[in-house]
Amino acid sequence: MKEDLSNLDEKVEVVNSKPLRFEGSFSAEKLVLENGEVVADGFFVLKDSYPLTSLVPGLEVDGPHVKVDRNMETNIKGLYAAGDVVGKPYQIAKAVGEGQIAALNACE
Ligand SMILES: Cc1cc2nc3c(=O)[nH]c(=O)nc-3n(C[C@H](O)[C@H](O)[C@H](O)COP(=O)(O)OP(=O)(O)OC[C@H]3O[C@@H](n4cnc5c(N)ncnc54)[C@H](O)[C@@H]3O)c2cc1C
């Protein structure tokens, strides 16, 4: 589906050229396009993702999130989930903590 780009802020420049690769020494400094290049301090790549329900058949979800219990176990025994996929806040500290809980319970 084509995005409606008619209401963008005038400062936003829309570049319709196929991206080929990033270039840089330590980090991405330049995006090389089929016709030209973009030099910037940082780049965000947005890509399509699969719907949660297609990840694992029978996986119970709550809207955009996978349902888990306090042990981070899903409705499928032995299958654990942690981090952004199970809910807000979308923060690294939460993801790491939940990942640890999930790992410890999975080992047990
Ligand atoms: C621009 C930005 C800035 C942020 N800044 C902060 C910040 O300052 N502080 C903070 O605490 N949080 C920040 N966050 C949020 C933080 O990045 C996330 O909360 C955290 O990364 C969640 O970790 P995660 O392991 O759950 O998911 P992710 O880090 O997203 O990891 C999920 C991984 O699964 C992979 N994946 C997805 N689908 C599939 C599939 N079907 N098969 C195989 N692999 C798959 C993805 O490619 C990805 O590598 C920021 C997020 C963004 C986007």
Summarize the structure.
With 108 residues, this protein is an alpha+beta fold. Helix content is 15%, strand content 16%. The chain folds into 2 domains: 47 residues, no CATH class; 56 residues, no CATH class.
Summary tags:
single chain; 108 residues; alpha+beta; 2 domains; three-stranded antiparallel β-sheet; two-stranded antiparallel sheet; 1 helix; 15% helix; binds flavin-adenine dinucleotide
Task: Please outline the helices and strands.
Blueprint: E1 19-23, E2 30-33, E3 36-39, E4 61-62, E5 65-66, H1 92-107
Antiparallel strand pairs: 1-2, 2-3, 4-5
This protein binds flavin-adenine dinucleotide.
Written description of the protein model:
- With 108 residues, the chain is an alpha+beta fold.
- The chain has 2 domains: 1-47, no CATH class; 52-107, no CATH class.
- It is 15% helix and 16% strand.
- It contains 1 helix and 5 strands; from the N terminus they run βββββα.
- The protein has one helix at 92-107; strands at residues 19-23, 30-33, 36-39, 61-62, 65-66.
- The strands form 2 sheets. A 3-stranded antiparallel beta sheet has the order 1-2-3, with no helix packed on it. A two-stranded antiparallel ribbon has the order 4-5.
- A hairpin with a 2-residue loop joins β2 and β3 (36-39).
- The longest helix has 16 residues, at 92-107.
- 9% of the residues are buried.
- The mean pLDDT is 93.
- Flavin-adenine dinucleotide binds next to α1.
